[in-house]
Design goal:
flat, 18 helices, alpha+beta, 942 residues, six-stranded antiparallel sheet, single chain
């Protein structure tokens, strides 16, 4: 990167605009930035760094700058033959463009690339510059621009700090990625190994055994180990434990079989006893039920025979009932026909009345239909008139809009005239004030110049031989008179400021008046064009009155037509309703006519039905002896009730007899079956002889069987408890045996994984320790640092050439081979070898001048290697701020020789220094001057 042009505005000590053309300094060699302390020499370098990388500081704006001047830095530089442009401004407070007070100017930046592409934004520019130069702001400050107080930073940096610088410059981050990746793999393998070991440990802790197991203490001891190593012993213990448990399970299984056989036999005998007891009890119940049945047989049989004797009476009564039913049916037919004839007469009167109502309705509808038809004929043509009125209203509205537009434009034109007159009046006042301030300034300036001439004349009077500072003559024909009232420079500057402010106000007022005049012309032109388009032949002054008159006339016409349109709309609405009603009436008339025909037909049919029913009623009346149907019905109901009672009594007695006979037969069959079943039982196991035919003996045997069953239950309970105990014990041992077998299988499986992971862990640990510099007893140099050491050695070799020359062969850089201890990271530490006394010491022990030469040599060596490496970074410019004042004359001579030789190539080296001899040695300079009133300037001096 080589600067071509630097523009500084209101930045640091520079109050105004400073333009530095670096092209005047040439494309190589040394140049000096000189000036008094605090003038702003270092600010030139800071401005370049700010343009490139920015600065978060909010105190970059010059305190000497006027509020109207903006703060920014512009830099044009070349890189590999291509030109770049940067403009950047910091955050600062600036006057508001409108109103009073200040507002914050946001930090911003712009970068124009060689192809014309623009990068905008403060942070975006910084990132792009970092990518282009290959250096960030920290690296730039340590290698390219060695700022005041920054010389020793690169020199005394520790391994970690220097490694960070080398990583970005020499692109060694891939080695760091490799180191970290291998270390991550090692940690993952270590965790996996520990996880498998923990799993085996959990399995060992989960082994189950009895309280009397002889190896229990050994298992507890192994389970307490952090790392399980005695896996073979654990598997042997589990095998012994499983053998013992399997023997116990086999012995218990034999005992369970014996107990279960006894339990089965006892249960079988108990079930046989319970079955016999149940049958005996059922037989006793059957005997009891048979005795009850026999006791009730006589009474039921007597009742049944009595009811059989009443059968002739029931049959005779049934014949009488059938005769009465026939008689009642004839009475019912007569009654129904009389009722039907009456209903038909009522219907005939209803139809007659309905027919009269329909005829009356038809008459009323016909009358309304005729009137409506006449009204519709009279209202034809309303739609046509409505469309005519609407068309006229639309034409009126268009004309009214033209008048309204003219009225509006007249108002705007009037306002424009008033605004122009107002702005013109303000301008005349402002111009008068500016002229008055100009006269005051001219008077003050003449007074100041006259006062200076008087002061000069007094000096010449006191020393007549002194040459005139204006013309150089030693003969003074006429000296100016001394002024009694002296006008100071500040008075002149204040008067000038007031004049300039008044002039600026007048110019601003003039611009506003001009804008108002243009606005008036635009409004006048627009109004004239609108009047012409409206077809009005009149002057602009008369347009408003004519437009208002025309607007009023057309408004009146529009209102009348709109009222007419409203009436037409109402009439159309009425006609629409009439049309609907007309269609409805027409339909109703058709329906009424149809209904009249239907009702007339029903009425005639009803009259015929009445005559027919009256003849049938007369015939039935002649056939009946009496027309009292209620007496006949009552007699029928009485006989039916007597018959129903007789049938119900017979049914109940008959059902009771049948049920009783069936129950007797069923009970006898049950007794016979139960006796058979009881006799078939084998009672040899309980030594009991069953007397199935003897009811008394059976009762005694029930009690004996109950006692037998109670005893058998007790025996079964004892066998069950013994069986459950043996089964529970076997289940516990079997569960323990299954779990321990599973544990043994899992431990064997995990053992294989543990061995495999252990081998992997040993391999990856060795590689990780090597790459990350963690080998026991070895220097802590990781792979990335090892690669960086190679670059560092090259830097040291180049730097030693320059340091050896600067120090006249006294000092030489030596890389420290190992750290102070084996635990801290090392490899990039730096010492110096003193050839005068043969000692090696830290660079931190160098004096101020020695430290400056060493730092400068290291920076130059670093720049050489960076350019030669594959990093793509081009360093053809360097900036060195101060440090030369700490050198004696001989050391300064040597340092200048090195820098001169460096600049003989293609480098441009800038130096900031107070050392006077450097001004004589270096022809090309940037001279910085600080004004007494504040604010600095800088110019290129060749």
């Amino acid at each position: 990167m080589r600067p071509k042009k630097l523009v500084i505005s209101a930045f640091g000590p520079y109050a105004g605009l400073v333009n530095i053309d670096f092209d005047l300094l040439g494309d190589k060699g040394l140049y000096l930035i000189s000036g008094n302390t605090g003038a702003g020499k270092s600010t030139i370098f800071e401005a370049i760094r700010f343009a490139l990388y920015g600065d978060d500081s909010s105190e970059l704006r010059s305190k000497y700058a006027e509020s109207s001047i903006s703060t920014y830095v512009e830099l044009i530089f070349t890189l590999r033959g291509q030109e770049y442009y940067i403009k950047r401004n910091p955050k600062y407070m600036r006057p508001k463009t409108r109103g009073e007070g200040y507002t914050e100017a946001k930090a911003d930046g712009e970068l124009i690339l060689p192809d014309g592409k623009v990068i905008a934004g403060y942070a975006a520019v910084t990132q792009k510059i970092t990518d282009i130069l290959g250096l960030n702001t920290e690296q730039f400050s340590k290698i390219v621009m060695i700022a005041q107080g920054k010389f020793r930073e690169l020199l005394v940096a520790d391994t970690a700090s220097r490694s960070k610088i080398f990583r970005d410059i020499f692109k060694t981050s891939s080695y760091d990625v490799l180191q970290r990746k291998v270390k991550t793999q090692f940690l993952d393998s270590y965790k996996a190994y520990g996880k498998i070991n923990d799993s085996i440990k959990q399995y060992v802790q989960g082994i189950s055994y009895g309280d009397d197991f002889e190896l229990a203490d050994r298992l507890k001891e192994i389970a307490a180990y952090e790392v399980i190593t005695d896996i073979d012993e654990v598997k042997e213990i589990i095998s012994k434990l499983n053998d013992l448990d399997e023997a116990v399970v086999q012995d218990n299984s034999l005992k369970i079989e014996q107990v279960q056989r006894k339990l089965t036999d006892a249960a079988r005998i108990k079930a046989s006893m319970e079955a016999m007891l149940s049958l005996i009890r059922q037989l006793l119940d059957a005997y009891e039920e048979k005795r009850d049945i026999m006791a009730r047989t006589g009474a039921i049989e007597t009742s049944y025979n009595e009811e059989l004797a009443k059968q002739p009476k029931r049959e005779k009564l049934l014949v009488q009932i059938e005769k009465e039913k026939e008689n009642v049916k004839k009475y019912q037919v007569y009654s129904d026909k009389c009722k039907e004839a009456d209903e038909c007469k009522i219907k005939e009167k209803t139809l007659e009345k309905k027919l009269q109502n329909l005829q009356s309705t038809e008459k009323e509808l016909s009358k309304e239909f005729g009137l409506l038809k006449e009204s519709l004929k009279n209202s034809e043509g309303l739609e046509l008139r409505l469309s005519e009125v609407a068309a006229v209203i639309k034409e009126l509205e268009l004309q009214l809009k033209e008048y309204e537009k003219i009225i509006e434009l007249c108002g705007r034109y009037k306002n424009a005239i008033e605004n122009h007159n107002k702005m013109a009046e303000i301008y005349l006042k402002k111009r008068a004030v500016a002229e008055e301030k100009k006269e005051i300034y001219d008077i003050a300036l003449r007074g100041f110049l006259d006062a200076q001439a008087g002061i000069m004349a007094e000096r010449l009077r006191d020393n007549p031989t002194m040459p005139c500072p204006v013309c150089g003559s030693t003969e003074h024909v006429k000296l100016a008179e001394s002024m009694t009232k002296v006008v100071s420079e500040s008075d002149v500057n204040n008067a000038k400021r007031l004049w300039e402010e008044a002039t600026a106000d007048a110019v601003s007022a003039s611009e506003r008046a001009g804008a108002a005049a243009k606005e008036k012309e635009r409004e006048e032109q627009l109004l004239g064009e609108t009047i012409a388009e409206a077809g009005m032949s009149c002057q602009i002054e008369d347009a408003l009155q004519l437009a208002r008159k025309g607007h009023n006339e057309y408004s009146d016409k529009k209102e009348k037509l709109m009222a007419e349109r409203e009436e037409i709309n109402k009439a159309i609405a009425v006609r629409s309703n009439q049309l609907t009603r007309f269609a409805s009436l027409e339909k109703q008339l058709e329906e009424v006519a149809s209904n009249i025909k239907l009702v007339e037909a029903d009425w005639h049919q009803c009259q015929l039905n009445i005559k027919s029913l009256e003849g049938q009623v007369e015939q039935l009346k002649n056939e009946l002896s009496s027309t009292n149907i209620n007496e006949a019905a009552m007699l029928l109901r009485e006989k039916e009730a007597i018959y129903a009672k007789l049938v119900d009594e017979f049914t109940k007695v008959s059902e009771a007899w049948q049920t009783h006979s069936k129950k007797k037969t069923e009970t006898e069959a049950v007794i016979s079956q139960l006796i058979k079943q009881i006799k078939s039982f084998d009672t040899s196991e309980i030594q009991l002889f069953l007397s199935a035919d003897n009811e008394e003996k059976l009762t005694e045997q029930c009690e004996e069987l109950s006692e037998y069953i109670t005893a058998q239950n007790e025996k079964i309970n004892n066998f069950s408890k013994e069986n459950e105990g043996l089964i529970d014990l076997n289940n516990q041992i079997f569960a323990r045996l299954s779990a321990n077998k599973a544990i043994a299988a899992n431990i064997a499986s995990k053992e294989v994984s543990l061995v495999k992971e252990g081998e992997k862990l040993r391999e990856i640990k060795s590689l990780s320790d090597t790459l990350n510099g963690a080998l026991e007893g070895k220097e802590r140099v990781n792979l990335e640092t090892f690669v960086q050491i190679s670059y560092f050695e090259q830097v040291i070799r180049r730097a030693n050439i320059k340091l050896f020359e600067m120090t006249e062969g006294q000092y030489e850089f030596k890389r420290e081979q190992s750290g102070e201890d084996k635990r801290s990271r090392s490899g990039l530490e730096l010492n110096v070898y003193d050839h005068y006394n043969g000692t090696i010491r830290s660079v931190r022990t160098l004096s101020g001048g020695e430290s400056f030469m060493a730092s400068l040599s290291l920076a130059l060596g670093m720049a050489d290697i960076i350019e030669e490496s594959a990093s793509g970074i081009a360093i053809d410019t360097m900036f060195i701020d101060e440090g030369f004042g700490s050198l004696d004359e001989a050391a300064l001579e040597q340092a200048m020789k090195v820098l001169a030789r460096l600049s003989e190539g293609n480098k441009l080296v800038g130096i900031i220094s107070h050392v006077g001899s450097l001004r004589e040695r270096i022809d090309k300079q940037i001279c910085v001057t600080k004004a007494q009133a504040g604010g600095s300037t800088a110019v290129v001096c060749i």
